[in-house]
Design goal:
about 200 residues; six-stranded mixed sheet; 7 helices; about 25% strand
């Protein structure tokens, strides 16, 4: 199993980082407990820290420490992480954990992974505040990765428009995943983690 973990600045928002680390830890422990090898790739705009082909549950603490100690920040480029890693892939499972708050080129990435005979699991991690925002006045939104700002009217209609745009975006990603038989999971940071664990067990 290979786990690609997004460590960009936007993953620091709310408690997205903590949920993503829990997801990565759950996948890695499940694989190691089944005597599979595990590789983890921490990425931003390319490959950051990585571990390759670790075995046994004794490796678990090392992997978790890497995740917890790593500095999250900067912008993301998933393709620039997956493309140079492709020669290390053997037939198996590839897990991508990200908020996908960037030009992720997800179809291009999935096509590459399918060519490398990977079963792909996409964990789309979003905070409750991102899924169901509650604004009651005009606010300035700041892109945590690019620094770009936007003033918006946050009345009832604006919030509904945001939710519709987010749903369209999620549906677009789901459509790509469906075409390539990718296991897609939308993880809301406020939801109980037990349900996610059961889902992982059904995959692995």
């Amino acid at each position: 199993m290979t786990v690609f973990q997004d460590t960009s600045e936007s993953m620091n928002a709310f408690n997205t980082r903590e949920t993503a680390i829990k997801a990565a830890a759950t996948f890695t422990y499940s694989a190691l407990a089944d005597y599979d090898t595990v590789s983890t790739v921490l990425f931003k705009d390319g490959i950051g820290k990585f571990s390759h082909n670790l075995r046994g549950t004794k490796s678990f603490n090392r992997l978790v420490a890497d995740l917890e100690d790593y500095s999250f920040g900067g912008e993301s480029d998933l393709f620039k992480a997956v493309y140079p890693w492709q020669n290390k892939l053997r037939k198996g499972i590839t897990v991508i954990i990200s908020d996908l708050m960037f030009d992720h080129q997800i179809e291009k990435v999935i096509r590459l992974l399918a060519y490398k005979k990977q079963r792909v699991v996409l964990c789309h991690v979003l905070a409750e505040e991102e899924i169901n925002p509650t604004f009651d006045e005009n606010v300035m939104l700041v892109d945590s990765e690019s620094g770009e700002t936007m003033d918006i009217d946050t009345g009832y209609e604006a919030v509904n428009l945001y939710k519709q745009k987010l749903q369209d975006y999620v549906n677009e990603i789901k459509g790509v995943c469906s075409r390539y038989k990718v296991d897609y999971m939308l993880i809301n940071t406020k939801d109980p983690f037990e349900g996610f664990i059961k889902h992982i067990q059904s995959i692995s």
